[in-house]
Amino acid sequence: MRALSDLIAARRPALVQSFDTKPNILAPMAARAVPGTTVVRTVNGLGWIYSSRSPAAIALRPSYLLMHHRAGRHATATVFQNRQDQAFFQRYHLVAQGTECLIPGSGVDVEGFDQAAATAPAPHQMRARLGLGAGPVVLTVTRLTRQKGIPTLLRAAQKLHGLRPDLRFVLVGPRETEGRLAVSQQELDRHRPYVVATGQRDDVPALLRMADIFAFPTEYREGVPRALLEAALAERPIVATRMPGCSDVVEDGRGGYLVPPRSPDALAARILDLVVDPNGARAMGRAAADLVRREFGLKLIVARYTELYRTLLAAQPQAMSRRRR
User: Fold this and answer.
1) Are the CB atoms for 224 and 106 separated by under 8 Å?
2) 236 φ, ψ to 5°?
3) Cα distances (angstroms) measured from residue 224 to each of 64, 81, 245, 292
4) Burial class of residue 17 in the structure, from the number of CB atoms within 10 Å of its CB (0-12 exposed, 13-18 middle, 19+ buried)
């Protein structure tokens, strides 16, 4: 906080924008170094402390609530990426009335994604490279950690393998960098050959074109997961957990299905529903794409932030005069 206070006092910015849990607590309080500074904080999910069931997380929650309450008194505006986080802050009085707004997610570059997908290798080429065969493919893009629900997905995959031996699961994302919460290589190896873990990749649009279904079994309070936005842009039906952020992208029964977290049976059942009804699955994928293109495009998110900044700075002309000096 001292470092931030010194920085704000030296630079005297017209506006301070914070992002993520700790900066959202520290930046509004540090900005008191220059009275009248416009401070906007973006709540991009509530993170480990409000997602984990561990004793450490539960013990820390009261302290974080108190700090968020204090920080909220010094923030000019609080931006929420999903409706459930906004309701949580309102319920616990962590934000001053009239200072909050909803801007869904951080946006997704629709044009860039479309271009990357259009120039990607054909789906059959991608499947051949990964040794997947011609059966249905379920794709997941996330960090391979327990908080992201990977053990639940592996149990669902095992269950489905007995019913549909041709079904394959592809897990894309880092594992070795995820510390003690990472899913072990031994856990992954137990599910060969119907589970393929590729590690981190930079060709997600091509992988999405190859897949039939996108699964996102997170147990984490997300902001708005970009992985879901990209899956929707690729017109893939989604099976996600009923967690904050996911339910803002997936309307249950329309763009895909929502299932309880930590429920491999429910996850497997909904994936199977999409496998046996490919026409319905394609319709859900198109509905998901329509929603994302309409509400979550990067250009639209940028325009909403720009309008928010203009409104706030117009209401505090002294901030602009400081910047001119």
Assistant:
1) yes
2) -100, 130
3) 21, 6, 4, 11
4) middle
Residue 180 pLDDT exceeds 90: no
Q: Where do the H-state alpha helices sit in 98-210? A: 110-118, 123-130, 150-163, 185-189, 204-210
Check pLDDT > 70 for residue 5.
yes
Percent of the chain with pLDDT over 70: 97
- Per residue in 124-134, is it b (16+ CB within 10 Å) or e — as a string? eebbeeeebee
**Residues, the chain:** 325
In whole angstroms, how far apart are CA 294 and each of 20, 44, 208, 225, 237? 25, 20, 20, 16, 17
Q: CA 106, CA 153: separation in Å to the nearest integer?
A: 26
Residue type present at position 103: I
Instruction: Report yes or no: 305 and 23 within 8 Å, Cβ to Cβ.
Output: no
Q: What is the mean pLDDT of residues 48-61?
A: 81
**In this predicted structure, what is the pLDDT of residue 31?**
94
For residues 275 and 30, give the distance between their C-alpha atoms in angstroms, rounded to a whole number: 52
Domains of the chain, earliest start first:
2-107+298-324 (3.40.50.2000), 110-295 (3.40.50.2000)
Give the pLDDT score at 177: 85
Q: What are 215's strand-pairing partners? A: 239
Token pair 């009804």: residue: 277
